[in-house]
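Thread title: Can someone regenerate the structure for this chain?

I was given the following input by a collaborator and told the matching structure tokens would be attached. They weren't. Posting the sequence so someone can regenerate them.
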Amino acid sequence: MIGLRGRTDDGLRGTLLDAGVSYAQVELDADGDFDLDAIDAAIRPTTRMIHVQRSRGYSVSRPSLRLSKIERCAWRWRARSRTAWDGGPRSPHRI
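Best answer:
Regenerated them for you:
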């Protein structure tokens, strides 16, 4: 559970936000494609992960994303990444 509002009124914990994980969402563009400029703008030096939801979720008007489209974008973002989990240079390997 992402938990955009943080801790509940009764003090219960268990969301990613409670664990210190921040979240930003970038919508698809009007054509249903990745808005690459908006995604690039949302990526910060502290970004550790980009999650892509392939399924259409609750949207009845958007088809599932094609794997080839996700792969193309994954390689783009990977090429722009400068640091690995430990802060060192990334080693090349397949996604």
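The chain has two helices and no strands.
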